[in-house]
Specification:
Layout (H helix, E strand, L loop, with lengths): L1 H7 L10 E6 L2 E7 L9 H4 L2 H4 L16 H11 L8 E6 L3 H10 L3 E6 L4 H9 L3 E4 L7
Parallel strand pairs: 3-4, 4-5
Antiparallel strand pairs: 1-2, 1-3
Helix pairs in contact: 5-6
Length: 142
Amino acid sequence: MEIASLVALRSTCLRRKVGAVVVKDKRILSTGYNGAPSGIRHCKETGCLRERMKIPSGERHELCRGIHAEQNAIIQAAFHGVSIDESLLFCTNHPCSICAKMLINAGIKTVYHQFGYADDLSREMFEEGNVSVINLENGEPL
């Protein structure tokens, strides 16, 4: 989780810094942080669209310049031809429902997160998709 927190420091999001690390057999396969796609201006330059529109956290994910940390971790693995099937995800925040769908289809079996996120649908989908979700918010050791 400390590595995910370190990766989150690279985030260019103005609202929340999130980091994700995909691990299998105690090896890091990929990492991701939330921010604008490569070659696209960051929110630090353009301002936060969601903030301007007063969109609450956990709603209207499509109205954002950024890609979520979990999505970037999946994309990085795919870009480099690394299978993340049967892997674990360590993420600073509980994934949203969009990320949950992607993680389920990518074959992630367990998600460890430190902080919560206001998205009940993601919890339902993880449960139905047989993905274990473990909250480390209380600093519980692995």
